[in-house]
């Protein structure tokens, strides 16, 4: 029989080193993140960028608010213009001499007689 026999080989155990023997210094064992050094110039640039961002958002909000106010005022102006036109038409109808004569007759009024008129010099 020409069968190969298979052998199962187990990997050899490595000896695990303890942390104290590793290359990492003792004071750095607990630190996961590296400390970042930021210069004063970078802090100033980031502050200016943040201020510009806030200013841009605030000015956009103000522009939107003013646009809404303008739209509201334009609608109100159109309403007031239409109301003014309607009132002027009504005034012209009420001041019409024919209308006033009709109202006078309806109320029992008549033109004054000559003896009812007094002239002042």
Describe the structure.
By secondary structure, the protein is mostly helical. The protein has a domain at 36-104. Helix content is 55%, strand content 0%. It contains two helices and no strands. The longest helix has 56 residues, at 40-95. It is rod-shaped and about 150 Å long. It starts with 39 loop residues before the first helix and ends in a 14-residue tail after the last helix.
Quick overview of this protein structure:
With 121 residues, the protein is mostly helical. It is built from 2 helices and no strands.
Furnish the topology, listing elements before pairings:
Blueprint: H1 40-95, H2 97-107
Overall structural class, as computed from helix and strand content, comes to mainly alpha
Main beta-sheet annotation: none
Taking Cα atoms only, what radius of gyration do you get, to the nearest Å?
A: 49 Å
Low-pLDDT sequence parts: none
**Quaternary structure state of the chains depicted:** single chain
Question: What is the mean pLDDT?
Answer: 84
Order of helices and strands: HH
- Could you give the count of β-strands? 0
How many helical stretches? 2
Helix residue percentage: 55-70%
Strand content: under 5%
Q: End-to-end span in angstroms?
A: 158 Å
Q: What is the 3D form?
A: rod-shaped
